[in-house]
């Protein structure tokens, strides 16, 4: 409660004091628990305070004030197990070099010493400068400004800085008014989805990489940006998060409700939103809890987004720390969980790979499955049939299938070309013999390579392999 009083003194609001005191509670709320606190405080936006990206005295001071704030936030949350995620600019990975505690290194490296989860505001509109530039509006691409290079640079900071266990996501922009190269706003949703898919496939094997953010809900879902043909295939795309600044759905303004938001997010493959939360810890808390619960009931997690670049200044730290305390209390007092609604595909599969053994069964069952798969190619001269690879049963059992169900192509081998020299009248792997020829017929050695024709080529017959005896 002491912190509440301090904040009221800072904000000089008797009304706010009353609200803080009357809404302070410890009752556990049955609702979908927010998954963490998301901090969007960008010291590089404080140009009026002297930030210049070149490591001058003002930049060094602002950067260290920001890092001090991150340490305070982590100290406040360290005993709660509440994840904290911060947004950083791409320049922090290399350009901005900051001395701190006698060590000079990139601002991103310093930040990763403190926090565990980072969203890199990559904000460029192509993945690869060679393969993808033609799809951009500007047609002016270079490697240093590709998503592939920008994201990899931060992943290298994690690796080279010894930040094992930290996570990195990256964000893209959709606002068309912030600069052509910075946003997908001119290219549109379809091109953005191509680039996001390339990015996800490229980075998903790096355990540090945790996914994609889209900035922001308003611009990413506006009619001038979206492509209606993508709505029906949203569940096939990789899940992503969105920043959300509007309060219309939280507070049911302009006829919009929390439930109205659900199909929009689902149709854009969203499974997590970072919601600007500064104003929702007081008298609006019941509506906010209802919103969080509605999202959770529909497979969408919520992060509590706290954003104001001036909070980086030390003089404003008490304000943001009070809000962090409110966020911690709200999250601590909620105990529900969220289950995916299947609106998108996880970055990495959470189920064990499907194998011939797990999908079809033991070798005997696979043998029957292969035999039932039939002829490989109906148009080939010599018939070939699927069969179990008897010499490599263990390899067959462990083979990982790609589709929803294992196929004969994956779990069976292609058998021999069936002809008289290797197939008898029972279809066995033996040459057709004289005693299998009909009475008055004899084996014709010239027909040893003649295709079998009975039962679609499975077995050889008398007419395939024998000839009539001469009187």
Give an overview of the whole structure.
Mean pLDDT is 92; it is low at 1-26. By secondary structure, the chain is α/β, with parallel strands linked by helices. Helix 1 (2-11) runs antiparallel to helix 2 (14-23), helix 3 runs parallel beside helix 10 (317-332) and helix 8 packs parallel to helix 9. It has an 8-stranded parallel barrel, surrounded by 5 helices. A two-stranded parallel sheet has the order 1-12. Strands 4-5 form a two-stranded antiparallel ribbon. It has 3 domains: 31-336, TIM Barrel; 351-415, no CATH class; 418-471, no CATH class. It is elongated. Helix 3 links the parallel strand 2 and strand 3 (84-89). Helix content is 31%, strand content 16%.
Poorly predicted parts: 1-26
Oligomer: single chain
Q: Just give the CATH class of the largest domain.
A: Alpha Beta
Q: Tally of extended strands?
A: 16
Overall mean confidence score, pLDDT: 92
* Apparent shape: elongated
How many helices does DSSP assign?
15
Number of separate domains: 3
Radius of gyration: 32 Å
CATH fold name of the largest domain: TIM Barrel
Question: What is the helix content?
Answer: 25-40%
Which class do the helix and strand fractions yield? alpha/beta
């Amino acid at each position: 409660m002491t912190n509440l009083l301090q904040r009221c003194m800072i904000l000089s609001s008797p009304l706010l004091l009353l609200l803080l005191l009357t809404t302070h509670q410890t009752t556990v709320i049955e609702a979908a628990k927010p998954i963490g606190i998301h901090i969007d405080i960008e010291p590089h936006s404080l140009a009026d305070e002297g930030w210049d990206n070149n490591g001058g005295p003002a930049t060094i001071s602002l950067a260290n004030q920001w890092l001090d704030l991150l340490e305070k936030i982590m100290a406040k949350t360290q005993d709660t197990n509440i994840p904290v995620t911060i947004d950083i600019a791409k320049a922090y990975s290399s350009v901005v070099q900051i001395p701190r505690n006698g060590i000079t290194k990139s601002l991103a490296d310093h930040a990763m010493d403190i926090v565990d989860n980072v969203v890199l505001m990559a904000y460029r509109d192509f993945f690869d400068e060679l393969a993808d530039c033609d799809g951009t509006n500007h047609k002016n691409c270079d490697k240093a400004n590709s998503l592939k290079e920008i994201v990899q640079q931060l992943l290298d900071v994690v690796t080279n800085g010894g930040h094992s266990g930290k996570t990195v996501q990256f964000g893209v922009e959709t606002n068309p008014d912030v600069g052509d190269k910075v946003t997908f706003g001119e290219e549109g949703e379809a091109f953005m989805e191509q680039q996001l898919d390339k990015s996800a496939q490229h980075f998903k094997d790096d355990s540090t990489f945790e996914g994609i953010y889209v900035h922001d809900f308003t611009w990413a879902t506006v009619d001038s940006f979206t492509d209606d043909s993508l709505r029906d295939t949203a569940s096939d795309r990789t899940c992503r998060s969105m920043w959300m600044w509007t309060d219309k759905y939280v507070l049911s303004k302009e006829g919009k409700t929390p439930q109205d938001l659900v199909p929009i997010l689902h149709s854009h493959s969203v499974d997590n939103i970072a919601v600007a939360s500064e104003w929702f810890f007081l008298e609006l808390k019941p509506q906010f809890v209802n919103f969080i619960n509605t999202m959770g009931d529909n497979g969408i997690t919520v992060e509590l987004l706290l954003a104001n670049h001036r909070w980086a200044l030390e003089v404003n730290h008490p304000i943001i720390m009070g809000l962090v305390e409110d966020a911690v209390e709200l999250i601590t007092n909620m105990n529900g969980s969220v289950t995916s609604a299947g609106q998108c595909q996880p970055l990495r599969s959470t189920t064990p790979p499907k194998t011939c053994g797990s999908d079809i069964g033991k070798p005997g069952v696979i043998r029957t499955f292969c035999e039932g798969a039939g002829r490989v190619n109906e148009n080939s001269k010599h018939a070939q049939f699927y069969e179990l690879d008897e010499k490599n049963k263990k390899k067959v059992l462990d083979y990982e299938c790609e589709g929803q169900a294992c196929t004969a192509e994956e779990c069976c081998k292609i058998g021999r070309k069936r002809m008289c020299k290797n197939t008898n009248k029972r279809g066995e792997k033996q040459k057709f013999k004289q005693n299998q020829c009909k009475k008055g017929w004899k084996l014709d050695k010239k027909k040893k390579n003649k295709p079998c024709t009975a039962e679609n080529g499975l077995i050889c017959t008398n007419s395939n392999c024998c000839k009539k005896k001469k009187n």
